[in-house]
Amino acid sequence: MCAAERAPTCAAVTMGHIAGLLLRLGLAVIATLALVLVWRPSVLRAQSPQDSAVGKPAATAAVRPHTVKPGETLWSLAARYYGDGHQWPDLARRNGIAITGTPLLRVGMQLTVPVRPAIRGTMAAEVSAIRAPATRVVAPDTSLADRLPPASPILSDRAVRRTGLVQQEDQLQARDTSDALTVFHRDLPDAAEAERRTRAVLRPNTPTPRQAEFDAAPWIVPEASLAHTGRIIARVGSPVSNGNAYPQRAIKTDQVEIEAARNQRYKVGDVLVAVVATTTFADGQRLLLPTGVIAVVKAEPGAPALGLVRRQSGRIEQGQMLVPALADRGAWVTTQKLATPDVSTTVKWLDDHEVLPTLQSFLVLAAGAAQGLKAGDEVALYRAAAKGTAEHVTATVRVVRVERDHAAAIITRQYDTDVTVGMVARRYAKVP
Known about the structure:
By secondary structure, the chain is of the alpha+beta class.
């Protein structure tokens, strides 16, 4: 049999561990040296607590005296010598000035300030002037005007430095040649969508007559009633006219002298209409053409009343008749088209002064409230092209004023130039 190997001695084990430890220590030293060579740490000098304060100069920094001048403050001096106006408490403590309350400097006071100011930028002093606190120098012998704080150099100077492109030429020259204009594109809606959007924005085309149409619409009165009308005497401020002169005329906002009929008197607030009577419209009837609305503003016994021209629709002349105004137009609503035209009538009257009646011309229909017409109804005028041919629409009119047997209407649409007396008229839309 072979003899077994002997176990290692203690000395052999100890020497192996020591060699391993030395190897690890050597590797650690090499790694440390490598880190030192790579990172190269900086060595900082130890600082005193006073030197480490933000914005405060070191104790060994050179200083010099400063004599306070008019207009200087602790803030402006700190911005000048420390580079920051917020360091004014340090400047005050250095010179034994209390920082509580309202610290005041006096002209001629000696201060200790650094020799070399640490200005942070070229605009530090100007910016510090804007942010200066309520500390100022007060001289014992200064007047009240001199005690006021000085104006800021930036705010008071009109030639302020401006940043950016101000002129349009500079903006165009500074544009990059590679810049491309942005083009906005959107799809156009179809016809139905376009109509829907248009109706949502625009007001509906409803037959709502204006007040001026009502004021200018003619009406018919019994001829006997004209014997009890007033008249316009003269326009206030016009020279007295003799028999050979043209009658005086008035316009809107003019005042006129008016005279009431016999045994009648006007009172303040009465509303009158200046009218021109046409020739006989029918047996015992006259058609009146209104030219303006006049309101009585002054009425005294023994003197002509004064009237103010409020609205005008024609010539307002000396000697014209005055009749009481009718009620203003009522509420107008949307008309409803009829399936079949009704209320057949004819054109009874057209203005003789109109050579060719057209849009906005007035006419009188030979039908009124007795036949069912109402203000706001729409009537079509028909004419036959030739004998035996079908009728075609020449124009459409809207009823403005209704009487018992007649109605005044205004032309709103026209499809032919020939509008004459005697044309057939039928209502095709009526108000509810």
